[in-house]
Structure formats: C-alpha cells, structure tokens
C-alpha cells in the first residue's frame, strides 16, 4: 500500500508512528549475520563451486567480538499503523546496519545516535531515529556460546599460526575486496587490553555487553526533537534514580498524544526530564529540513560541497564514506535538501546496510552512504565502477570527482556568498582538502590511519579541515567535559597555533546559559535555534540561484495534451520542454552546465509536475518555487538582465531567519504532558542499566478521546493528506503512478533496494530490473540523439529549427559514453582500472594479438591480397575496418592520460566512423572472454537484451557525427590525397610539377609537391595536425615542360583515422591557353558517402551541413558540365536570394556551430555561383577567333574604361562618393590582376566577389558596371544586368550582408595585398 493512499482517523496528525526496540533475541541465541553467508555464497558462485554447500560454513578466523550477529526487532508499538505498514526487515537493517556487536567491560563505548530513511516504491519517505547503547548480557546461554566461539577461534588461529585476518581478503572479486576492506580489524581502543589477547573474552573474568537500539519512526524529519527525546529515554535507563513515571507513559505520550505541528506553527512536548520544542515551516516556505547543514559544510568545506552538489544535479553516482552513520545521513540529506525545487529521482540509500553491498554494483545513478571502519584505507576500497563516481570521504574531508564535468554557474561568487553566511555563524568556510579529480590509477590518495584518542582530538588534529569543529559542538563539549584529554588538547592546540576560541566561547556560553536559564531556554534550545537559522539561510542562497537561473522556465514548457489521461498515455512521445530555445536564451557561461542539467531525470520530472499542475493540485515544491518566481517578477522587471550572467545575491536571508526565530520563541501549541497509564502495578520494574520490557497492551492502542484525534471530516482528511504530501509524499493516483513509473526511466522503481532477506533470488531479480532499465535507457538515448540530429522529426515535435547545437550534441554523446560505462561495469567479476569498457577492450586486444602471433607462426605466408575489397573503385583504396586499429589510434594519442578518457575517445571515434555497433558486436562475440569477465546476471551476458542494445546503437549510423574530429583538435592525423584526372580528354601525364594544399576548419597542410607522372597520385600528408572538417583544396602546377596542361576531374582526400572522405570536384583544365588560363584552382569539398556502405546499413545519411536539406544540386556555369545549362532569370534570382539567405542563417547560429562560410561564398549554390549566373545571363560569349570570353573580360574592360575616363576628367563632375567607389573597384581589380598566383579568369571573378562581400563594396560596384558603356557591346538587351529593377533588387539583397563580419579563408586571399 503506498504511503499516501490510506488515511484513517488521526492518521497523519501523529508526531511519531512507531517506537521500536532492536537487539539480541535470547530465544534464538547467537546467529551469524547474513552478510558472512551471503559473501560465501557469492564467492562460491564466482568460482563455479556449488554455492549452497559453501554457504553453510562458519567463519572462525575472525575474533568473535569483532564479528557481527543477527539482530531482531524485539518489540514495536503499536503493532501496525494502517497508513504506514511497519517494514520489519528494513527497520532492523537500518537500526543496526552491521548487526549486533558485543564488547566487554574493558572497552567502554558511549551511546551513539543516528537517523535513517526508508523510501517507498512511490517515492514517499519515512524517517527513523535511533539511539544505540550497550546493555549487559544476562543470558548464561549467550555467554557460554561466546566463550565456545572464542575457544574455536583460538584453536583455529593457533593451527593456522597467523594473526586473525579478514574473511575474504584472499578473494579478487571487486565486491569481495570491498567487503574485506570494510571488515578490516579495528585498532585496539584501550591500552589496558593490549597486554593480553586483544579483545579476548573469558566468562569467568569478563562481563559481556551487547548493543541495543531504541528507535522512533516518524513521518517527518524532526531530527533534533527525536534525538533529544531518545537521549532522555536512555538517561532514564542508566541513571541511578528511577524516572518520575514508568517509561510506558513517555512512549505512549509521544506515540498518541503529541501531534504533528501544523504548517507554520511550533509545538512543545515533554520528554522524561525536560521539554522539547520543534517547528514546521509554513506552506509558502522551504519544506522542513532539520539535519544540520552547517555540519555538512564544515565537514566537507564549501567548495567541496558545491562540487558534490553539482555532481548530484548532473545525476552522477555519489558515494558518501564515513565511520559515523549520522554523518552519512547529514551529508546525504543536506545535498538532497539543497536541490529545491528539484528532487533526486534515483536510488537513495544514505546508510547502506552491510548486507546490501552488492548494490554498489548498480548501473544507475545513486546516492549512497557506506560506513568505513576506523582506520580502513580508501586505497583498499575497490568499487565496481568509478568512471562516473563522485567519492566523498567525509571523515578526511576530501572528494574525488569524475573526469570533465561542467562547473556550477557563477561558482566563485556562489561560494563567496555561502562562506559569508557560514562566517556569520562562526563557521570557517575554507575547510576540506581541495577536490581531487581522478587521473592515473596509481594516484588514489591514502589517508593516514592513525589511532586517535577521542573524536574531538581526531577532529582537531586533522589538518584537512584547519581544525574547525563540526556543527554539533554541544555533543563535542559533553564529550570533553571532565575529560583529562581536554587540558592536553588545549596545550597541543596552542603549540600548533590552531585556534579553539570557539570551543572556549561555547563552553562559556553553555555555562552562562545554564546559570541564567535564559527564561527557561537551555543550551540545547539555543543550539537548535542557531542550527535552524543557519539551515534556512544556506538553503535560501541555493534556492535563490535556481530562482534566477530558471526564472523564465515556464515560457519554454510545451503544453500539448488536452487532458491528463492523454498526456500520461503519450508521455514518452511528447516533447514537453523546448530545450534548444531555452539554451539559446541563456548566458554563454551557463551553457555547459545547463545543457547537461536539462537532460536529467530530475529536470524531466520537474517539467512533468509543471504540466500536470494544469489538471491537479500543484506538487508542493513546485508551488513554493513558482510563488518565488512570481514574487521576483513583481519586484524586478527582468527583461534587461535576461541574458546577463552577473551574479544576483539572495535578498531574503534576514526575513527567513526571523520567521524561524519567532516560531521557536513563541510556542503555538503545547502537547498533553506524559501521565500515569492504566497499567498493572509492578510490571515495568526499574532496573538500572536495563531497558525494561514494556507493557504492550497499553502501548498498542491510543487514547479514545482527545481533541485532535477526531479530525475525520472528509475535507479535513483531504487537507491532511495534502499536507502529508507536502513533506515528500509522491503521487497517490494508481493510474498516474503506473504511467509515471513507466514513463520515467528505471530510477523510480529502484529508488530504494528492497531491504529484505537477501536470498540470491532477490539479488537476481534486482539485477534483472537493472538490465531492463539499462536497455530502456539505451533506447531513449539513441532515439533522442537521432531526433535531435535528423531535425525532421524534431520539427514535428515542436522544435522551430531543424538544427542541433554542438553543445547539445556533445551533452548527448557524453551521456551515451556514461551509459556504456555503466553497462560495461554491471556484473563485473574482477575490476581492473577505472573504466570497465576500456579494460574489456584491452583484454580483447591482448587475446587477438596473441591469436595473430600464433597464426603467423603457423603460416608465415603473407596475406596481402585479401585487402583488395573493391577493384571497381580505383579512386581510393578502401579503409580496412579494424577494432584493434581504432584502439591503437587512441593509444597513440599522448593527449589522453586516463582509461576513462581513452574509452570515451574510442566511443567518439567509433561513432564518427559509424562503427560503434559493429565494433561492440565484435567485442562481445568473444563469448569465452565475456564469461571470464562478467557474472552470469550481467547485462552483457543477457543475450536478447544485448542484441536489442546493439540494434539501438546501429540506428546511430543513419546520421553523421564529427564528435571525434571536433573534440581532439590538437592530435596528428594522416591524410591520404588522390588526384583523379579525366583520362579521355587529357594526357593524364603532365610534364609540369603539380602541388596541392589541403585546408580545413582548424588549419591547412601547407603546400606539398606531388611526385611527377603518378597516375593516381596517392601520398600521405603525415605529421599533419588535425585540420577539422575539410573545406578547400588548392591545386596547381608550375607550367613547366611541353605537356603543361592538366584536366582534373576531382580530388579525393581521406582522414585515415576517422575514414571521412571528401570529394573536391574540379572538372576543368589547369594550364595556360586552355579554359580560363588558370594554373591553380581553389576547390570546395563535400563529404562523400564511402562505397559499400549501403549494404551494411551505414548508407543513410543526413544531408551535409553546408546545404539546407531542401536544396537541389545546382551546376556551376563555369564547370564543363554546366556550359550548356541555361537557367531562367527567375531561377537565377531565386538562387541569389537563397545564397544570401544561407549566409545570413550562418551568422545567426552560435559561433561554434557555424560550419564553413567559404562553402557558402564559393561552393555549389553559393553567392559566387549565383552571381556568376547573373552576369552570364544574356552575355554575348560567342567565340571571337575561337576564344571564349569570360565575365572577367567584361569587368576588365569596364575598369579600363573607368580609368581612361578618369584620366580624361569625365568623372570629375560625378558626385564625390561615386568617384571613390570607382577608384576602389579599379584598385581591387588591379590588385587581383597583379597577384603572383595564376588563378585564371573565373578564379579572379570569384576573388572579386569575396573581397567585395568582405569589405561591403559589392552593392556600390554594381551601379558602376551597369552604367558602363561597354555593356551594350557585351550583353543582349534582355540581359538581367541591363534591367534596372532587377539590378536594384539585387543591390537591396546584397546590402543585407552588411550586418555581418565576413571573414575569408587564407587559401582564398593568399597573395592579395589590399
């Protein structure tokens, strides 16, 4: 039953739902914890032995006092609450995550407090608060069982003659080494015991104590109140005098007579010795969060916490690591609380019970807490997957971050503002060791495992935090008071120069408060008030960042469904947030972070909630957030600062703290005092040091009448249910829940692993859910990448433009790399290196190379002929597809330093080559290798899912990616160039010395001489840096010898790493006295579809980036094929409009995504081609004396006329600007004519158009050419150039280019001095 579906009577009004006691069951005696058995089972399974036989063995190697035993829930009151059924397994596991532990009188340990959280399937949460103390064992059976275990242990260690060691230390499985590192022996705690056998037990001499836990289960996280109640209860058990009333009175009171405070109100109720106060925020305020954020900040340091927070927002895997359960809980709750208005959507287990360690294998985002043993070394902690892990070592105040993730916007100013808030409360902000990013595998930092005397001394000695005490100073003081260590500590700190002023101040403050009584307020009250104010101010700073960043999010939400039901059924196909427009509206520095963040599950859920709020009540967090945005709009008309990235500070810090202070100072409601119950006399007899067996009959039912238990009216019930929801409880409509479960990826179903008996069947089922979830995620990601890239579908789904930004593309590819890493690390047998995928590839490589060597040894015959795949394509020998070859390319890149980086580069390269699916299929076809590396439940060993997964990846071959070339811009790439002459028409041989120069978006190769008389001139441009996407090829020769003419069909250039082949069509002569007399040409290329792609499904491609998809190919008028082609005047005008339009569009794209401007100026369907057609229209190009007349001849004649007219003074009368224009045209034409390059007449015309466009002169030159008397001689009457209206229209169109900075590629303007 979901936590919000049943409400009865006083259901949601009660402060606490259950009081439970966990400890040893004297009936069943000592049972070893499931953990040991489970590990033996897993280990046997891994080694192929019969797991069930192995699981029965006992483990005598470890000292019995160090071992853990099964704990039980001994009692719970009431038996059951219908709206929140008691989960016995979960409560037992989380009250005692490691099971029972024993100690003797020699090893004194103070009581420990910790909290936990149980997340249900529907996302609703229940909180637990636990006080654990040691109680003397009175059962003789258990004492003698412990004695027997000791004798066996001593016999075993004598026989093995080795010191006791951890149970699984010899195993190599990553999970087992994880377990053994957690089971490291604790350092001896007291010097007196080191003389005899450490931690020994002798029943005749020692008293045995066992752990017992008192637990309150509540619907809301009132951490401070529960902590104080439980500590007073524990005090009542241990104090010499009996408590004022039987303990049943206090438990009954908190279960049945203390209500939840109403929103915006405070409540006072009574513990055993003193009153306890708690408060609850109002409906418009940030929801309740009672865990001390100040402590989280002081444990980690502000910068570290902001980094962990960023990793959480980006849904990475977060693993918290500490010896103290409460610290794990504080850090986890701090991070998730600060996410407002978003909510963590994935696995959330702040305290991972020892028996659930296999859950670290989960291939999904998670936020988990793992307990470290005192002195255990981080370097020994082998985690199943680390490619995407943020590891947070709370006790040593340092973090390890995943490689290359984007920073939170305005991070420096944000940290500054948080530091100021902390300083105002006396907490220094610059704590925490600087974060470490994973680099090489060897650099895992190890932490010194010193034996420290007390927790406080450890905190002060540890230099990672500059000696600042944690937030719970009071607890620390209690520890220090009356402690001989204190004096030594003071002396030590004075010597080392660490300030403990705050400790002194606190001690003084506590004394002062105790003496004055401050109107009845205790030190604990003051501490709680201070914590509450600090909490709310820190949270406001975070909330204000999101309010600023997402102030306009509503404008981009796409509301497309008529009603809730149709929206829920079509949820997966719906496009409900316009990501492209949203990003284009954001300041540039925010983009790296935002483009990743809007792809997360938490953002998707936030938008889903927004859309659903049309039809039903707003989700509480969303209601508060929207309220804040509306308020910000009232005070601040946000238009001017829309795209500004300047930092806006939080303006409501004072008010938020005052609201809390007023509530805590002025109590709104006081609960009924604890009172005597109707109990049998003498049953709950007081015995110091023992928690009595409580009378169940009085605790299992609440009072029949009190003023708030009768709120059962329907309206009230609805209100209460809503209030319950307000504090975390999710969706209560079954249909909705079902659809949403399916609609959102698997995170929801696995928010919390089922805390139950851990039979192998349960583990298998969990893993099966993971496999299904990974496959679904793969389907969603590939679909999203295709939709984004292909644009067509995206337009129908609400995108305005069919283009994908480079930033979005990069984000999607990064998330695909992350998914592949998670798939490859699921069910891994033995972990090697940080990247599971790269490790698998290396195994494959080693195996294949070994096979190759054997093969060569057996048959030393050379196997060359096999490479000639397609004899028909003489143009370019085909590139051999080889997984190993691609790996070697990556291995030779010195820029990449880590395995994770290599794996990502390899994925990008395979994606760019359209070989990702094929390569992975090949990798996984080696079944023996997969079997050796992966457990049988792993994703990669689920045949059907694996096939589907490869099929989804295959779909990515339908689009072109440049995700390797565009990211690794500094690497060396070999290029192969083939020049193809037109054989029929020319001597394929030429006596002159040809040369070529290849240019791309990132640079050019420089001029390279081509060896003479090579038919297919194939040579490698090696030692050349990555040129990026190729744009132009300059081809020419020196006109030497008799056969100095050359007719070239095209030039082919191939990138030998990515296999991208570009075709640069030419179709013209190079030589004096033929064609336009050009000795060199600049050719413009486009990506060619490799032959033989069609059959492998790699052939479907998106159109190249240069052209918009709708355009048909136009033939250049000057190429051979175009000579007979005469376009109509309407076609010419349309072509000019389209060419200018494409240039305008080019400049409207973000700079990084523009592609090549040169192609738009000079390629096919370019401005030059269109203007060429314009000037050719009606041109009298009859062959006078067998000589073709070119447009350039007309331009030269016009310029000659202007110059002669200028000398004769005809131009003197003309207006001044016109004279200037004349001079500029003459100057440009003469400069082009006097260039040392032999670019031919068409090349010169092209150059004139490009320079005119760059310097904004084209529209001014046109009237001069039109006015020139040369026109009638060279143009027919119907020519477009002689039609005034058309020319004026053309001038208008060309003037639109004046707004843009046209820059020309170096290959175009080489040798022109202007």
Structural notes for this entry:
- The chain has 1314 residues and is α+β, with helices and mostly antiparallel strands.
- The protein contains 44 helices and 25 strands.
- Strands 1, 2, 3, 4, 5 and 6 form a six-stranded antiparallel sheet that branches.
- A hairpin with a 4-residue loop joins strand 7 and strand 8 (275-279).
- Helix 8 (293-300) crosses helix 9 (302-313), helix 11 packs antiparallel against helix 16 and helix 35 (1129-1148) packs parallel to helix 43 (1284-1295).
- It is elongated, with a radius of gyration of 39 Å.
- Its main location: membrane.
Helical proportion? 40-55%
Q: DSSP strand (E) fraction? A: 5-15%
Q: Terminal Cα separation, in Å?
A: 81 Å
Form type: elongated
Low-confidence stretches: 1-11, 162-198, 439-482, 491-503, 505-518, 706-719, 721-732, 742-749, 792-804, 862-874, 1092-1123, 1211-1215
- The mean pLDDT is 75
Structural class: alpha+beta
Helices, by number, come to 44
Count of DSSP E strands?
Answer: 25
Give Rg in angstroms: 39 Å
Give a quick account of the main beta sheet: strands, pairing sense, barrel closure.
Answer: 6 strands, antiparallel
